[in-house]
Amino acid sequence: MSRRGTMQMTKLLVGQTRQRLFSTATSKNVSSGTKFAPNVSGQRFTNHGILGSAPIFEGRYWSTVASEVSREGKTVQPPKVEYSGEDDHQGGGKTVAISSYWGVAPRKISKEDGSPWRWNSFRPWETYTADTSIDVKKHHKADTFMDKFAYWTVQTLKYPTYLFFQRRHICHAMLLETVAAVPGMVGGMLLHAKSLRRFEHSGGWIKALLEEAENERMHLMTFLELSQPQWYERALVFAVQGVFFNAYFVAYVVSPKLAHRIVGYLEEEAVNSYTEFLIDLEKGLVENQPAPAIAIDYWRLPPDATLKDVVTVIRADEAHHRDLNHFASDIQCQGHELKEYPAPIGYH
């Protein structure tokens, strides 16, 4: 094809697609010869000989929605802000606090004594009193090959952590909680996807597993108030969580009953670890310091609660997670699906 024929073909194609390439406002500006504001790339890209000096890339930058708003004279109102009396040390001005979310005022929540509720991570109706009467010595006997495999997997994994942390219970608990909070989230996520694929209810198990994950995370937030991990402990958590998350994800996809059994035995070891923590607190080997404020509000503990009270309720939570996961594994080992049995929702 000759060069002249190529140019004519190009003109025809551009003429047909011009309305799609440019918004209404842009087309008007092109026809009137007005120039645009600075473009995306910082340089002017033009198509000389076809549309004159019309900037192609600038035309694509302006959307049809923007042109409609400009034609009708509508403007988008930003969120309402209010200035507090405190100085902004970084910018040198007043600090800006967002007072509403597109017209929705934030909720003002108070405690029973009238003081403001200081926690955004959980609300008063999400708090509870732990059932400390739960049996903390219960053990699921490993009879089948699957149970023995799950049991000895957990036993093999626990010894390196015991050797690393020794009697540093708080640091050990922080590592334990970063791992223990993974299975509930992974299991709840996969059950959620399964429920969507099959167009069916989950029997409450999605919520139960997500409650477990959130409860374990609150354990971690509590211990962070008592001690900050060192850089090498953070590095260890980063590595262990990355490996465990992916390994547990694969295990749950392959065999959910095995995955729940592993978590059941993992929670048994968590109960044992917190029992040793309590023994050292009673012996005076660990300081029985006042309980953090977040723990007092989350577990509805008395104002004078101590670390021993916190460890006691956390151990009860772990015992409940132990029973929940063993129960889930038993259901599936008997050939049933989780949705056939009501999930233990609201118990920690």
TrEMBL record:
GO CC entries: mitochondrial inner membrane; mitochondrion; respiratory chain complex
Give the UniProt subcellular location, in the record's own words.
Answer: Mitochondrion inner membrane
- Give the catalysed reaction(s), semicolon-separated: 2 a ubiquinol + O2 = 2 a ubiquinone + 2 H2O
Q: Name one Pfam family in it.
A: AOX
UniProt-listed Enzyme Commission number(s): 1.10.3.11
Q: Name one GO molecular function term.
A: ubiquinol:oxygen oxidoreductase activity
Q: How is the cofactor bound?
A: Binds 2 iron ions per subunit.
**Principal place of residence:** mitochondrion
- What is its EC class? oxidoreductase
UniProt keywords (A-Z) are: Electron transport, Iron, Membrane, Metal-binding, Mitochondrion, Mitochondrion inner membrane, Oxidoreductase, Respiratory chain, Transit peptide, Transmembrane, Transmembrane helix, Transport
List cofactor names only. Answer: Fe cation
Q: Among its keywords, does the record have Acetylation?
A: no
Q: Which InterPro entries match?
A: AOX, AOX_sf
Determine if Transmembrane helix is one of this entry's keywords.
Answer: yes
Entries under CDD domains matching the protein: AOX (cd01053)
Organism superkingdom: Eukaryota
Tell me one GO biological process term. Answer: alternative respiration
Give membrane topology per the record: Multi-pass membrane protein
Transmembrane segment boundaries: none
**Family the UniProt entry places it in:** Belongs to the alternative oxidase family.
**Subunit composition and interactions:** Homodimer; disulfide-linked.
Q: What's the protein called, per UniProt?
A: Ubiquinol oxidase
> Which organism encodes this protein?
Erythranthe guttata
